[in-house]
Write a structure and sequence with these properties.
Elements: H1 3-14, H2 16-24, H3 34-56, H4 61-67, H5 71-89, H6 96-99, E1 100-102, E2 120-121, E3 135-138, E4 146-151, E5 154-159, E6 165-170, H7 187-192, E7 196-197, H8 202-205
Parallel strand pairs: 1-4
Antiparallel strand pairs: 1-2, 3-4, 5-6, 6-7
């Protein structure tokens, strides 16, 4: 057996676990899903490997990965992904919620993220991988975890009929002041998909009013 064949066989043995995990995956994200972590890291590495070639071929990166990426590229990217998980998180079976986080430390528009500060797990992924709601997250200088800064910051469901009904959620909260109770009171709701009712009618507002405002008053 030559060195190339030995390297290939060693790579296949090394990746047998991650490959089996992805083959058995139901393609659904969740905070507990370890397959989501492997898939996202693999997808990111495949994207980096093929994006320039895809642009040169006039193809979307997704189509290029599916139709033109080589087996060597696919296995190489999977090896890179699992090595990165092992290096940064201590193993390749890492729940996605341990990586993908929501963090809001202060009222600054541009946050300085830190793995040492509190954050909450977010189960969904970037729209790049087909997720709605979308949570665009990445690692930042000094972090291993991913922190979200883009995506669907407001989500609403509206039912039209004789009486309007709606539910909504905002990423974090509606206040930019850290001392406000509404600075991050919707963060858990956002991550869990637990939308709050929207109050349209005066009777809906009873018991939910903190203060009133009258224009010109």
């Amino acid at each position: 057996m030559g060195p190339t064949a030995a390297r290939r066989d060693g790579q296949k043995a090394k990746l047998a676990g991650p490959i089996a995990l992805l083959r058995d995956w139901n393609h659904r994200w969740s905070a507990k899903s370890t397959a989501t972590s492997v898939a996202v890291f693999w997808g990111e590495d495949m994207w980096a490997l093929t994006s320039q070639a895809a642009a040169a071929a006039g193809m979307s990166v997704w189509d290029y990965i599916a139709d033109r990426a080589t087996d060597a590229q696919r296995l190489g990217a999977l090896e890179t992904a699992t090595d990165r998980l092992l290096r940064d998180f201590g193993g390749w079976r890492v729940p996605w919620g341990e990586i993908n986080r929501y963090q809001r430390n202060d009222g600054a528009i541009v946050q300085e993220f830190s793995d040492a500060k509190p954050s909450i797990p977010v189960p969904f992924t970037s729209a790049r991988w087909g997720s709605l709601a979308s949570f665009g997250a990445k690692a930042y200088p000094g972090t291993k975890r991913y922190y979200g800064t883009s995506g669907n910051s407001f989500v609403a469901v509206v039912e039209f009929g004789p009486r309007l009904r709606a539910w909504a959620v905002t990423a974090g909260g509606v206040s930019g002041h850290p001392d406000s109770p509404h600075f991050d009171d919707q963060a858990e709701r956002y991550a869990n998909g637990n939308l709050r009712p929207v109050y349209f009618y005066p009777e809906d507002l009873r018991g939910h009013i903190e203060r009133r405002y009258r224009p010109g008053g």
